[in-house]
Amino acid sequence: MTINGEDRTAEVHQFGRAIGLDAAAPNRYSTLLLIEMYAATVLAQQMNPAKVIHEIRTLENGGHAVGTKPATQFKHAPLRGLWHKHYQQDGLQSMALNLRLGLKRHGLPVFEQRMREAQEANEERYVSHEDIAAIAHDAVIGNYERRHQAGELTGEWIIYAQHAGKNYYLCLGEHDSGDDVLRKKVDDLCIREFPFLTELLA
Predict the structure, then answer these.
(1) CATH class, 2-89+155-200 region
(2) Is 22 helix (H, G, I), strand (E, B) or coil?
(3) Which residues 6+ apart lie within 8 Å of 7 measured at CB?
(4) Where are the domains of the chain?
(5) Which pLDDT score is estimated for 90?
(6) pTM score, whole prediction
């Protein structure tokens, strides 16, 4: 594995062992996934690999993920036959997405309760400083916790295949990657390592 003209094969494999990928799914992850995680963690410094490993371990142990959406099989071409599992990203973009979705689904329960109380009392009330603090807390912390408790937290994807009762972890994906781009990555780089994908994706 050459990065900027330098052979980093040993370093990349050591990274896989250090983050627990080898232990979580021995011989069942692609070189592509390993390189993507290495690049995002070491080179770009934009990933916490523990969050990906946590989701893989959950899938391996048959447990339920805490907070994130359950694994789902792709229903439509070109990814039909593969599965994806959400993992939480670090950073404001991921949090903002979950908060926007939380507001859309749950609204502002504290503010709505204050309005109901005023209507039931037939009173005209003004929003106080205390109300503003409670409403803001509910909009951010409350909605995030509601999504977490409901297992609705979204993030980016771990793309994997199921074969002979085991999971094979192929690559990372993003909601806006495009299904054709993800399929091309699998076709170009993963089928060589896992030939069963040819039949699975036919």
Answers:
(1) alpha beta
(2) helix
(3) 1
(4) 2-89+155-200, 98-149
(5) 72
(6) 0.79
